[in-house]
Design a protein that fits this description.
- The strands form 3 sheets. Strands 8-7-6-5-9 form a 5-stranded antiparallel sheet, with no helix packed on it.
- By secondary structure, it is an alpha+beta fold.
- Helix content is 40%, strand content 9%.
- It is elongated.
- The protein has helices at 19-29, 41-51, 67-74, 78-90, 114-120, 166-170, 175-187, 192-198, 200-205, 209-217, 229-257, 303-311, and strands at residues 94-96, 100-102, 105-107, 110-112, 264-265, 271-276, 279-284, 298-299, 316-317.
- The protein has 3 domains: 19-120, Arc Repressor Mutant, subunit A; 163-218, no CATH class; 234-317, no CATH class.
- This is Replication protein.
- It comes from Malikia spinosa.
Length: 323
């Protein structure tokens, strides 16, 4: 076995991936902070493939995966892989040594930078010693705490369904099925929550949601930046309803403050507002003594702003004691 490399198949079963690796993959494809959102989809895909081959016992150890294997996994050519390696190196995510040739394959040692390991949560932090070290008369066998004997990264905790996958539970999918889909999505370089967000109406309409989600996972699409037409239509309909409700609220506020014949003014007392022919108009106070045809009426266009002024008490009945 080579001490400097962890050579694995890029298509290793997802069940073999430790929890910390799966978390790192989810961060990469979900652009979860640390500058990951500045990477292109191709850069994040290559970063995810390298992450699958990292050694958790020594994350600073080099990663050795052939360019040929990576090109096949990402369905692209060797030159694209090399260019992507160079851009990742230029952005401070990886370092690489000179290319070596073995059996006709181009292989190079690749290392994640300390910053990359920290962002992906792959750095190993030493666990604290147990309180038994401070006990007098304790035997040498009792100086290790239970925590220090645990496998790194192992947490005895029941897995919870992520909030962005609640729709799948509502549709009757069991937790085991959801976690299986999460694993398959991670294996394909996707994040299941992004797929659900982007295609929620289609998933709800699917007769067999589990099989339909598998079909979506196999689709070569940047789900982080994709939204299906059905979702856009739902958003437009929701926005239309919101605007209608807002307009109704504005109209109700104005009509309640301005019954027939009522005029409003503000603290300056130079303008009055009134209802005319079903619309709101402003008029200079000095024009009130003039004939109707000579008054300088101006129709109010921003009714929402006027409603806010009424609710804030900035507009009140003309001729009241507040004037």
């Amino acid at each position: 076995m080579a001490d400097t490399a962890s050579i694995e198949l890029v298509h290793a079963p997802v069940v073999d991936l430790p929890a910390r690796i799966q978390t790192a993959l989810a961060r990469i494809m979900g652009c979860d902070g640390g500058g990951l959102d500045t990477l292109t989809y191709r850069e994040r895909s290559l970063l995810a493939r390298l992450t699958r081959n990292i050694s958790l016992q020594d994350p600073y150890r080099s990663i050795r995966v052939s360019v040929d294997t990576l090109a096949g996994a990402l369905q692209t050519c060797h030159k694209t892989i090399q260019r992507t390696f160079n851009t990742l190196k230029g952005k401070g995510w990886i370092t690489r040594d000179q290319v070596k040739k073995r059996s006709g394959m181009q292989i190079a040692d690749t290392w994640f930078t300390a910053r990359a390991l920290e962002i992906l949560g792959l750095t190993v932090r030493p666990t604290s010693r147990a309180a038994s070290d401070n006990m007098s008369g304790a035997s040498s066998l009792s100086t290790m705490s239970e925590d220090s004997q645990q496998i790194p990264g192992h947490i005895e905790q029941k897995k919870q369904i992520p909030e962005d996958l609640a729709l799948l539970e509502q549709m009757g999918l069991k937790p085991g099925a959801i976690f299986k889909l999460m694993g398959e999505a991670t294996k394909m370089g996707h994040r299941l929550g992004q797929i659900v967000r982007a295609a929620a109406p289609l998933i709800r309409a699917a007769k067999f949601p589990f099989g339909y989600l598998r079909k979506l996972i196999d689709t070569d699409r940047d789900w982080a930046n994709y939204t299906c037409a059905a979702v856009l239509r739902e958003k437009e309909a929701a926005q239309a309803v919101e605007v209608k409700v807002q307009n109704n609220t504005v109209q109700t506020t104005i009509e309640a403050a301005m019954p027939v014949g009522t005029q409003l003014t503000n603290a300056a007392g130079k303008q009055v507002w009134m209802m005319r022919y079903g619309a709101v108009y402003s008029c200079p106070v000095g024009d009130l003594d003039k004939p109707e045809s000579l008054r300088g009426y101006a129709r109010v266009a921003d009714l929402a702003k006027m409603a806010e002024a009424i609710q804030a008490g900035k507009l009140f009945v003309y001729g009241s004691k507040r004037e």
